[in-house]
Specification:
Strand order of the largest sheet: 2-4-6-8-10
Mean pLDDT: 95
Order of helices and strands: EEEEEEEEEHEEE
Number of helices: 1
Shape: globular
Strand content: 15-25%
Distance between the termini: 42 Å
Structural class: mainly beta
Largest sheet: 5 strands, parallel
Radius of gyration: 16 Å
Length: 171
């Protein structure tokens, strides 16, 4: 809760030596852009909760989990590139990110929580690189899937217009 609600905080420099950030620690601030530390292994729950001015965040390679409500109502966030290695996107992680138009989901993701992409009404494209991995993601419910509002699925930067279900997919 270190900086929660510090409404004047528009910029922050986080050293790469930081390994853990506490829940809520940057929520309800006026941050615009953040480079997360390289040693961080997860984005904790509520980290950027109601950071409505946040437009960009650099997520390092070592991240394995996006905590619940981590980017909830980050209305200015337009694009997110999740690095390979992330396995879990918890519930409502990106809910109400109304400016979000594009997201890249790596093949390492295996589960997406309830409402993770609820109310991301302007999401236009979901970028993947591995169709088999995409088909195996456990989406908790409809609004867990970023395609639910009509976003276009893109594989290797091209819209998916024809689909062959890969061998090995059983359900």
């Amino acid at each position: 809760y270190a900086l929660k609600g510090c409404s004047s905080l528009a910029a922050i420099s986080l050293p790469d030596t930081i390994e853990v950030l506490g829940r809520y620690c940057l929520s309800q601030t006026a941050l615009v852009s953040v480079d997360l530390p390289d040693l961080l292994t997860e984005i904790p729950e509520y980290l950027f909760y109601f950071c409505e001015k946040l437009t960009s965040v650099n997520i390092p390679e070592g991240i394995t989990k996006i905590g619940q409500y981590a980017f909830y109502t980050c209305k200015g966030l337009s694009e997110v590139c999740l690095p390979d290695g992330i396995t879990e996107i918890e519930k409502e992680a990106f809910e109400s990110c109304r400016s979000l138009t594009s997201i890249e989901i790596p093949p390492s993701v295996i589960s997406v929580g309830v409402g993770a992409f609820r109310a991301c009404v302007n999401l236009e494209s979901v970028h993947i690189s591995d169709l088999t991995a995409w088909m195996k993601i456990e989406f908790s419910e409809l609004t867990s899937n970023p395609l639910h509002n009509g976003a276009m699925l893109c594989m290797n930067q091209q819209p998916v217009t024809e689909l062959v279900i890969p061998q090995g997919i059983t359900s």
